[in-house]
Every structure is written in structure tokens, then in C-alpha cells.
Amino acid sequence: MPLIELRDICKTYHIGELDVPVLKGVSLSVNEGELVALMGASGSGKSTLMNILGCLDHPTSGEYRLGGQEVSRLSADGRALLRNQKIGFIFQNFNLLPRTSALENVMLPLSYTLEGLSDREAQDRAMTLLDRVGLSERSHHEPSQLSGGQQQRVAIARSLINRPSLLLADEPTGNLDSRTSAEVLHMFQELNQQEAITIIIVTHDLQVAMHAKKIVRISDGQIVDGDPSGGGLQVGGIVEGYESSDVTT
Amino acid sequence: MKAYRTINTALQALGRNPMRATLTALGIIIGVAAVIAMMEIGKGSSAAIERAISSMGANNLLIHPGTAASGGVSFGGGTATTLTPQDCEAILQECPAVRSAAPDVQARTQVIYGNRNWVPLSINGSTPAYLDVRSWTDMAEGEMFTDRDVRNTSKVCVVGQTIVRELFSGASPIDKKLRIQNVLFRVVGVLSSKGANMMGADQDDIILAPWTTIKYRVMGTSLTNVNQSSSSSGSSTSTEVNSLNRLYPTSSLNLYPVPSPTQMADTPQPVRFTNVDHILACAQSSDEIPLAIRQITELLRERHRIRPNEAEDFSIRNMTEMTKTLSSTSLLMTNLLLSVALISLIVGGVGIMNIMLVSVTERTREIGLRMAVGARSKDILMQFLVEAIVMCLAGGIIGILAGCGGSYLVTLLLRWPTETSLTAIVVSVMVSATVGISFGFYPAWKASKLDPIEALRYE
Ligand SMILES: Nc1ncnc2c1ncn2[C@@H]1O[C@H](COP(=O)(O)OP(=O)(O)O)[C@@H](O)[C@H]1O
Ligand SMILES: [Mg+2]
């Protein structure tokens, strides 16, 4: 059963008089439990698509069904609730609250959860997740006292706190070196296999892409090739190689 | 989002930049402290001013009897004899707005001590309450005569400073005997100096005695005479034409053989209806003067059996001018303090708004992140609003302590009168919360209207 169904999603930005079409009719469906790699050249519209998938933004036109629910026309508050409950977001630049401990960073989404968890329960849950990403010893460290890989792992723990059914990672390894990238990506695979969480990763790493059940290539706002077997890297040319050196957001 | 979590989040956010939070709150602290200190000092001084002015008689009410007239000839204000000592007692008992009341019987005649004589400006017969009415309770020497002296028609009196100077050459007059109209009065007390009144009349030129004594022992024989050597010859000219006066035993109407002055003084007759010249009353406060007037009017109309359409047989005067001065003084004071309070709090509020705006800009990414993990715009609004309110309230509380401490120091070091004012405290807490809400709202609203993607991308 498809968790995500996109039909003819268009997104156009207006800069003054100018219309900038970024997504030009994207149709896509992602099944529950899939690990999808989203690839494409810089500026091709990956982040824009991820923002729509993550309910941070709504499309100019088109339909977006998440778990059977039409969400493209939801109100801002409705989308906020969805982001809180169903979606975990992981950013390239981690986006942890500065001068706030790892534990509290992980608990952050719980502040906006309607179900009333007690402080104890919330802490226990956050500690379990930190343990899971191997940072239980660092729970009281602030982001500035953690390495990039550790920060990204805190961010992953944070994205999991509300047990989302969908994880969206926009270039999660873009700011990491190759070894920590591998660690982080391994963690995504593990989550996908053990918890059957649907994950969409924007990546330039072919290695990761190979592990994905599905590779979606996007070029100039359109899906080019939904074939999981991969084939060549014809879209956008072979730019990045195996490590990401691209820092587009 | 639970309330305590919101507060917790706000405290954490403030705690991340304690120096800035403190400096921001300082605006409110200084504002509130100034307000509290000003209010307390101001209240103390305006109470002191009020006391000073009311000791000049600002709260006094003078109840005059009405005008007597005969055949179209009016005899002027106060010529009717309608006020009784019982009226005075009733006023005291039945008018809650009246603090105290005293009857007043006046005489003007010669006073003799040894080989000196003097005509005091006023010889007043009254009750001990007279001093309370006139806020004149501190005696320079000796004591005031008592209610018992009034009942017993005792021949005692207290004298003012001018009398001491003129009759006794400054020596202590206590227990000395002075003579008024051939009646010997023992001096039991000396009044403190009060100086001239607003019209320049010497208020210390006074002899106070029980009104019964003045009425029955002194005035029974001397109505208007100044010179007691010619007491027998003169009587009020009005008695001849004023038929009303004949009803009353105080007039020198010859229904019965006229007793000699000595006889009169020695055997005062019990009289059923005695009138007094005025009744002096004192309102609880200057604010209650109109109420007191209303209550007294109602009571006296009833007591004098005046029908609704009939004119009153008495009139009440107050010191309108002084009362006006009094109320305008305190109004000025209050307005002055209010404007100071307003200005300092607005300055503090602008400080808070400024810092909150900076803080919102600075934390744009944080806001974006919070929105990305599920914060609704309402949550963001609350978070920043609560931050502003927490700062204001904390500032307000510290300000209250500082203000109270400040005014305490002022009392201690400068000896200015201050009065702790609970309203000032309550008002400043409410005002600082209001400042927090009103000046914190715009930045918070601005934060809540941010677009999550834009905010996340903000550099
Ligand atoms: N807020 C915006 N306003 C205007 N143009 C935008 C905005 N966001 C993105 N774009 C444009 O949309 C295109 C796709 O951007 P993006 O989705 O971030 O690409 P990427 O695939 O590198 O993540 C870019 O050309 C970018 O300039
Ligand atoms: Mg991007």
C-alpha cells in the first residue's frame, strides 16, 4: 500500500513579476517501508520536493496523499500537527538548538505533542533513542561539544521521538566526512530494516543509492527515472563522485 | 503545549542569555521601583499635606441656625434659635460621615484677672469634642475640661496663648481664677498656639469653657455686652420686635421678675429647650464633606419637623475653598506620579520590545526548526509572549522590592513621611504584566508569522 502518492505536483515560485517553475508535474508513489534515494543535480528541485513531502510547504498544484489523507490543502496548523506526529525531518546542517543539551534537543518535538507525556516518560523515551544512536553518554552535552556526526545522530534521535512513519533526510551527510557519512547512512538502513520506517534520503552517494530499494532521479523539476536498478548516471552528468562535495540546500 | 512547559521553555531561552535578560528587565525594575517609591513617598506627603490643611479646618462644617424675621423684617443669618445641643448629639450619633461634632455658644465680653482686663476675640462655650473638631487636641499645658464639667456647669476653662500673654504676662495660668461677667473660672489648661486663621484673625485669642456654663452662668445676663460695667443697661435691640424670641427662655423677656445676675449665676435654671449658636462638625475626610452635609441636612430636617417643601431653618457652610485646594493638591500629586509612572514604564516596555525583536531575528532558525518539528504559530506566539511577560513580571517583583526598600531608606535617612501602598504594589504588578503583553506581542506575533522554510534557510 503506498504511503506517499504524488500526482502532478507543481511548484512555482514568484520572484517579483517572474514565475520560476521549480517542480513541473512530479508524480511519484512510495510504499510503506521503502528506502528511497532521491538524486539529482544541484538546483533540480530536490529540496523543494522534500519540503512538500514533509508538509513544510504546499504545492502550487497537484495532489499529495500521505497515508491515504489528502494533505496538500491542509491549514498551517494541520500541517504542523502532521509534521509533529507522522514525519521526521533530518537536515544537512543538523539544526540543533544551540546551548541546549542533546537530551533536550531530542525531546523538543514532544513540547508540541498534544498527548500529554509526563516529563519522566519523555526523558525515558529520549534516553532510549540516544542510546540507540550510541550517544547515551553524551546526553548532557551541548551541540557545540559534539562532532558533526554526533550532532547528526542527535538530530536522527530527535526525528524519531514521535515514532514517525516517514523519515525525510535532505542531504544528511552533506556536511560529514566519508567515515561518519557511512555511519549515519548505516543507521538509516538499520532503521528501515528493523522498524520498517519509510525513509527518503536526498543523497549524491551512489553507494547509498545502491542500498536503496528505489532510486528516484529528478532533473529540472521532473522525475527522470524511477528504475531501482539504477543504470547510468546520465542525469546531470557524473558530477559528485562517491562523496558529497555539494552543499546546496 | 502545556503551560508549565511553555514557561520552562521561556526560562531556558532567557537563561541562555542571562546578561541580556537582566539588562532588559532592568528597564522594568527601575520603572516599577520608581513608581513604588514615588507612590509611597507621594502618598506619605499628600497625607501629611492633607493633615496640615485639615488642621486648618478644611473638613469643618459650620451649622448655623436660620434667619428670624418678623413682619417682613429679616434679622440676618443666624438669628433664629433653632439649634439645640440635642441636635449636636444626634448628628454625632446618626451621621456616619461626621467624625465629631460640638455645639458652640459664643460670648464677647470682658475678662478680668487681677488688675488686668482683656476682651478676647471669642469666648466659646462647647464640649471637649470642640478641640477634636478643630484638630487642636495637643494642649500646651494642663488638660481640657471634661464632659462631666459640661454636665455640671462647672466654672472651668482653658485659654489660648494670647490670653496667657495678655492676662497672665506669660506666667502659667493653671489653677488661677479669671473672672468673666462676675463668674470666676478656674483655668485648667492652655491650648497650643494655632496662630492666625485664613482671614488673619488671631485664633489664640480664645477662652473655651463648658457651653452650659457660658450659656447659663455668663450669657444669661450678658447677651451682647462688651463692657460688663454696663451690663444691666443693654440688651439686644431685637428682643423688642422679635416675637419669636419670646418663646425662648434665654431672651431677657420679662415674663417673670428678672433675677439679679448673682442669683442667675448661682442658681442656673434647668431649661427644657436650650439653643446653641452654632454646631461645629467635622467630616471623616474631605471627600466625605458632601455626604456629611447631606446626612446632616436630612437629620435636622427630620428633627425640626420640616415638611419636604418648606425651607430649612438652618444652613450648613463648609470651607469650600480650602477643600478645593486640598483635593486639587492631591489630584495634582496623583497625576504627577501617574505621568512619571507611565513614562518610566513605557520606556521599560520599549526596551523589552526592542530586545524581543532582536531576539526574534536572532532566533529565526530556532523558530523555523520548532515549526518544522510541529510547533503551531500559536505555540511560537505563546513562547515569545511568555518570555516577555516573565521578564516583565520578574522585573516588576524585583522593582517592588527595590521601591519599597528605597522608600524605607528615604524614611530612615531623610525622615520624609512615606506610606506603604498595597494598591501601588498590585497596580505595578498588573502594569508590568500588561507592559509585557503589549510590548511583547508584536515581536511574538512577528515570530509566529514566519514561514518555516524561510526561517530555516535564514542566515
Ligand atoms: N524560496 C524560493 N524562491 C525562489 N526560488 C527558489 C526558492 N527556493 C528554491 N528556489 C529555486 O528552486 C530551484 C530548486 O531549488 P532546490 O529545491 O533547493 O534545489 P536542490 O535540488 O539543490 O535542493 C532553484 O533553482 C532555486 O533557485
Ligand atoms: Mg537542496
UniProtKB/TrEMBL annotation, chain A:
It holds the Pfam family ABC_tran. GO terms for molecular function: ATP binding; ATP hydrolysis activity; transmembrane transporter activity. It comes from the Bacteria. Transmembrane segments: none annotated. InterPro entries: AAA+_ATPase, ABC_transporter-like_ATP-bd, ABC_transporter-like_CS, ABC_transpr_LolD-like, MacB-like_ATP-bd, P-loop_NTPase. The keyword Metal-binding does not apply. PROSITE patterns: ABC_TRANSPORTER_1, ABC_TRANSPORTER_2. SUPFAM superfamilies: P-loop containing nucleoside triphosphate hydrolases. This is Fused macrolide transporter subunits of ABC superfamily: ATP-binding component membrane component.
From TrEMBL, chain B:
Its main location: membrane. It is found in: Cell membrane. It is a multi-pass membrane protein. Residues 22-224 form the MacB-like periplasmic core domain. Pfam families: FtsX, MacB_PCD. The chain crosses the membrane at residues 21-39, 336-360, 380-402, 422-442. This is Macrolide export ATP-binding/permease protein macB. It comes from uncultured Desulfobacterium sp.
